[in-house]
């Protein structure tokens, strides 16, 4: 599909033989060119946004300038790796470098798919690993403030039970809304949840969580085993979105912020448990992590806490007075 006037935005970029395949116009500095054809493909066939098109245009222009190729067909993996090293040397973030690599990869995939280059030279080049941000957790005092006020309505009783269950058992949001009454064993302080990969696990409940759940069930009319544990309007299973909204409401009232979300309570559960016990393997089991490396992120949270204690309390932690 070709439309008049759309070449103005791709001046200075390489070209594609209209008859199909590659011709002598595969030079990166040819007017119009392959990059222009690729951007048209993104715009008209893939319906890419103007923001995406602008980002790809910048990335490919930067790559072409850095590689200094006489012909796109001369591009090799070492040109791509050198470009990424150049971006890294200029202080670009792993996220930004990864996006630039994605632009180059998809461009050469486009060329390879049309037989213009024999293979994608960027296909085997790995993106830099991104640093995983540490999960945010409440400190113990903030977590305690969530439970200060006694529930004054059936709705508040339900919200308290949800809060207690999220923090006491460290369940995920999807696990919480999926619990049925038959999954509860309040006599033994246990709840069975179905997590990722349809795997089930049994999680222990603390005494406050058991009491909160008993108070919530006392307000319920439908106690059939297959009935959902937490319900909203008309007795239907509560939605994940409603849980998120109710937690924010409690957070605003008790913590003065709406930043609280269900997964933060899961992070808080894991962090506080690890801080007190130091038993990473037990925390892994309680969270339902298949791989302990997933749980190890909480050791960083624990170390942050220990480092703060050290900085505040140790006489040799501070620089001497001068």
What can you see in these coordinates?
The chain is built from 13 helices and three strands; from the N terminus they run αααααααβββαααααα. The protein has helices at 33-45, 50-67, 77-89, 94-113, 140-145, 154-169, 173-178, 207-217, 240-255, 262-277, 280-287, 292-295, 297-313, and strands spanning 184-185, 190-194, 200-204. It has a three-stranded antiparallel beta sheet with strand order 1-2-3. The longest helix is centred in the N-terminal third of the chain and has 20 residues, at 94-113. Mean pLDDT is 80; it is low at 1-24.
Q: What's the layout of helices and strands?
A:
Elements lengths: L32 H13 L4 H18 L9 H13 L4 H20 L26 H6 L8 H16 L3 H6 L5 E2 L4 E5 L5 E5 L2 H11 L22 H16 L6 H16 L2 H8 L4 H4 L1 H17 L9
Helix pairs in contact: 1-2, 2-4, 3-4, 6-8, 6-10, 10-11, 10-13
Helical amount among residues, as a percent range? 40-55%
Beta fraction of the residues?
A: under 5%
Shape, principal axes of CA atoms: elongated
User: In which order are the strands of the major sheet placed?
Assistant: 1-2-3
Radius of gyration: 28 Å
- Counting DSSP H or I runs of 4 or more residues, the number of helices is 13
**Terminal Cα separation, in Å?**
74 Å
Succession of helices and strands = HHHHHHHEEEHHHHHH
What structural class do helix, strand and pairing data support? mainly alpha
């Amino acid at each position: 599909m070709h439309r008049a006037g759309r070449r103005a935005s791709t001046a200075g970029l390489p070209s594609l033989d209209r008859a199909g395949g590659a011709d002598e116009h595969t030079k990166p500095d040819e007017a119009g060119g392959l990059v222009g054809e690729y951007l048209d493909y993104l715009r008209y066939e893939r319906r890419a946004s103007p923001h995406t098109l602008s980002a790809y245009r910048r990335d490919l222009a930067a790559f072409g300038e850095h590689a200094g190729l006489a012909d796109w067909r001369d591009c090799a993996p070492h040109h791509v790796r050198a470009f990424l090293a150049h971006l890294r040397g200029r202080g670009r973030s792993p996220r930004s470098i990864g996006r630039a690599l994605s632009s180059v990869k998809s461009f050469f995939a486009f060329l390879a798919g049309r037989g213009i280059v024999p293979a994608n030279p960027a296909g085997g080049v790995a993106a830099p690993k991104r640093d995983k941000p540490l999960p945010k957790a409440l400190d113990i005092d903030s977590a305690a403030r969530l439970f200060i006020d006694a529930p004054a309505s059936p709705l508040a009783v339900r919200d308290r039970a949800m809060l207690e269950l999220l923090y006491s058992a460290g369940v995920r949001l999807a696990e919480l809304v999926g619990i049925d009454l038959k999954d509860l064993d309040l006599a033994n302080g246990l709840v069975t949840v179905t997590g990722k990969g349809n795997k089930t696990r049994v999680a222990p409940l603390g005494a406050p969580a058991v009491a909160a759940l008993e108070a919530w069930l006392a307000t319920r009319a439908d106690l059939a085993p297959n009935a959902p544990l937490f319900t909203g309007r008309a007795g239907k299973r509560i939605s994940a979105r409603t849980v998120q909204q109710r937690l924010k409401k409690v957070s605003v009232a008790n913590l003065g912020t709406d930043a609280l979300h269900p997964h933060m309570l899961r992070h808080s559960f894991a962090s506080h448990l690890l801080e007190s016990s130091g038993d990473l393997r037990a925390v892994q089991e309680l969270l339902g992590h298949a791989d302990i490396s997933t749980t190890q992120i909480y050791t960083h949270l624990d170390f942050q806490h220990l480092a703060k204690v050290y900085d505040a309390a140790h006489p040799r932690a501070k620089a001497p007075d001068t």
